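REQUEST ID: PR-0412
SUBMITTED BY: lab tech R.K.
PRIORITY: routine
TASK: structure prediction, single protein chain
INPUT:
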Amino acid sequence: MPTTLAETKTRGSETPLLRAHMPELDSVRGLAILMVMLYHGFYWTVDLRRFAPVERAALTAAWTGRLGVNLFFVLSGFLITGLLLESKGRKNYYGRFYWRRALRILPAYYATLALLAALGTSWAFLGLSFLYLANLTPLFGVLIAYPVLWSLAVEEHFYFVWPVVVKKLTTRGVLAASGAIVVLSPLVRLWTFYVIGRDSSWVSYKVFDYTWNAADGLACGAMVAAWLREFEPERKRVAQVAGALAAAAVTLLAGGIPLGILNRHQPMGAALQVVPWQLLFTAALLGALLAGSAGKEWARSRWLEFFGRISYGLYLYHLLVFEGYDWLAERTGESGANAPTFGELAIRFLVAGGLAVGIAYLSREYFEERFLRLKGRFG
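STATUS: complete
OUTPUT:
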């Protein structure tokens, strides 16, 4: 089976959609982390009222970067479900999965917690985060001291539950279970909005970071993994489904804007704000598989693949670096530290973002890789 674009072109045939190595998905992962960085660099905690209309429009557009987390969820649901489905027959099904996940996730994660502890982060938050409950700390009356950890908690809860689901069900059963989660999640968010959110100080995004309110992105990816394996659809059919999902996403978003889909303080937004984007990301995932397996040059980006390779560490560290830059600017009395101009935000993004990329690269090459090499011992 060819694994490179050159080999694909030489043989003059398309490779299967599902392969042992799908480098186009590294590009998707790279895009996701860049979206998150743009959000934290240009939108998060920024007072938009101070900017000129054109600048305000550009900064507002950076809000969509927060949806990079949803893209991560869709991709993770696809990859993890695929791994589980393909290893169901192994005797060491659970052990293999959890050891390999632990080697991938825990070293950098707990190193980040240690750094946060050294910086004086609340022990209550650190203790809950140690148990992967960072997204549920509001239920314990604890502030989310380092926001990026919420999505890792959602992923970890997925890892606890999903292997059992996949092991117990057929592939069609996994497809049905995933579909049920996709359908029910907006209803659960709507229930949360009415029963918990309206009378709570946590009515902002934090309520929707609870695992049961954020599961449908993972389920979208899981549906793709199960559908492709169970039905082995032809490429034309996959392209049609991708197009239909994209069209549904645009229609839902456009139709929902007058009804408040952009505002999570409205019922429509609380329930459905992320749904069009998750449909779009699912379509993008299918499109990436089609393009990558067909040997399309544009499906591969060396830069995006680089960011995809270091995305885990970059996700963990980048916000700390941004906050460190802000702290240093404030202490040195730099102009605009508390109310930066658009240009100063751009400089901050380039300097702090570049430093975060360097740290993430060193982490991947000289820290995380030491543990990743051990994954071979578990098949």
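NOTES: DSSP finds 15 helices and no strands in the chain.
REVIEWED BY: pending
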